[in-house]
C-alpha cells in the first residue's frame, strides 16, 4: 500500500511539474511571437494562440465536450474557390472581400498593359538573378532592407517587382531605397546587386 501511495505521489508531482513547465514555456513563446509580430506591424494579423486551441487541434478537431469541431468547407484539388460555399451559404469572396490595397501573390499578377519592349528586366531575369545570389549576399540585402525600411515600403517594392521591372519602376524603387538608406548603405546594396 505504501508503494501505491508513493507511486501516486510521484505521478501527481510529475504531472504538476510537467503542466507548469508547459504553461510557462507556452507563455514565453507566445509573448516572444507577439513581440516579433509587433516589430513588423503585424500585431493584429494573428491573435495569440491559446493552449486550448492547440489541444483542440491535437485532439483531432474535437472540442472540450468531445464533439467534433465544425469543419470548414471541403475543397477538392482543382476545384474553383469561387464555387465553394461557406457554412453560412455565401462564397468566400462575399464573406471576406479582398481589400483594395491587397497585393497579388508572387507569380499571380496579371501582365501589365504596356508593351513587352517597355520591360527593363523581365520576371524570368529577376528570378534567375535571385537564384544566383549567394546566401551571404542574400542575408546582407535582407538585413539591410528589413531593418531600415518600414513594412509598407517593402511591400511597395515587392509590388513593383511583381511582373517585371520597368525603368519607371526602377526609379520608384530607387527613390524609396534612397529615402531610408544612407548613401553608403545604398552604394553597398547596388554593389551587391551589380555582382549578379
From TrEMBL:
Taxon lineage: Bacteria, Bacillati, Bacillota, Bacilli, Bacillales
Organism: Paenibacillus antri
Descriptive protein name: Spore coat protein
Region feature Disordered, mapped onto this chain: 63-101
Amino acid at each position: 500500500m505504501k508503494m501505491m501511495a508513493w507511486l501516486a505521489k510521484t505521478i501527481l508531482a510529475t504531472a504538476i511539474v510537467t503542466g507548469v513547465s508547459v504553461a510557462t514555456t507556452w507563455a514565453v513563446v507566445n509573448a516572444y511571437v507577439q513581440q516579433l509580430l509587433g516589430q513588423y506591424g503585424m500585431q493584429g494579423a494573428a491573435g495569440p494562440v491559446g493552449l486550448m486551441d492547440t489541444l483542440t487541434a491535437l485532439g483531432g478537431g474535437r472540442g472540450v465536450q468531445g464533439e467534433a469541431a465544425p469543419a470548414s468547407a471541403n475543397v477538392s484539388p482543382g476545384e474553383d474557390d469561387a464555387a465553394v460555399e461557406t457554412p453560412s451559404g455565401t462564397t468566400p469572396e462575399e464573406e471576406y472581400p479582398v481589400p483594395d490595397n491587397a497585393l497579388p501573390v508572387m507569380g499571380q499578377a496579371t501582365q501589365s498593359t504596356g508593351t513587352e519592349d517597355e520591360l527593363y528586366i523581365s520576371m524570368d531575369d529577376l528570378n534567375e538573378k535571385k537564384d544566383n545570389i549567394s546566401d551571404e549576399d542574400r542575408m546582407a540585402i535582407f538585413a539591410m532592407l528589413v531593418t531600415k525600411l518600414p513594412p509598407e515600403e517593402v511591400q511597395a517594392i515587392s509590388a513593383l517587382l511583381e511582373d517585371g521591372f520597368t525603368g519607371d519602376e526602377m526609379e520608384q524603387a530607387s527613390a524609396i531605397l534612397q529615402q531610408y538608406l544612407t548613401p553608403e548603405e545604398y552604394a553597398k546594396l547596388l554593389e551587391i546587386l551589380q555582382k549578379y
